[in-house]
Amino acid sequence: MHRCYYAALGMVGSPQDAEDLSQEAFVRAFRARARLDPERPFYPWLYQILRRLCYNFTRDTSSRRKKLARAGGWLVAEATTRAAVDDPERIRATDELRGRLERAIGELPPAQREVFVLKEFEGLKYREIAALLDVPMGTVMSRLYAARQKLAELLEGIE
Amino acid sequence: MTENRGRIDRSTELLMLALDGELESADRAEFERLLSDNSELREEWNRLSRLKEVTANMKLRNPPEEMWAGYWNSVYSRFERGLGWILVSIGAIVFGSWGAWQVVRDLMADADLPTYVKWSILALIVGLVMLLVSVLRHRIFVSQSDPYKEIER
Questions:
Q1: N or C: fewer beta carbons within 10 Å in chain B?
Q2: What is the average pLDDT value for chain A, to the nearest integer?
Q3: Top-level CATH class of A1-72?
């Protein structure tokens, strides 16, 4: 359930919606259990259900923007949770950077965002992402590259 | 540097692998040579390395512990509610149909009601049933034959 929740959180950027969508994925998986191939791993199958739910959820641009505006705070900067607690200026700067990164990720197309989150925040290898999404590794790389290009552009000027 | 439609060139591929620590030792020399020869690639490497540094310091926020504690209960409740709605819908359809049948039967048995009104009630019922059957049949056909049903909208 942890993995499912975090995958949804990365895709929709709102803890409340991630909880709803990941739970709904389990309900749908249970209803569709007859289609599950016991010879194959469970998570990739569940992930396909989850990503379909998340894609549909973020499909409506207006509702997506509303949700993202409401959401925020789905990332946390590790520096603010460690030694930097004594340095308010650093906390403020890191927090601002986190906010900008969240917004920038929110601007990415869903397919690029998905790959970016799986790579950066879930730490999956290229071949693992390719297997999970059932796409060639080259597609994973090109989506990630495009995402990084956009993010680097959006975060330009930050030190 | 990139090509459209999901393809990237060799130098970008090596750049991405190096950024993510997945570069094979056999490819390292090639990447280093490309990096020293190609200023555009070097610039790209510096730009994306900075981004990588930023994201490496971020992680997904953990939810409060209570959420995990109640997680499966919520999944169960969702399933239960879904089942509840199905039962309520079936009950409402059966009960509504029975009620409608009673009303129609009484109207038809009413000797004071003009014949043309009785016929119009009958036409109304037959029409509604035909529409319902047609819509249901169409939906079943679409759900069975739609080649795009698995594709995200």
A1: C
A2: 83
A3: mainly alpha
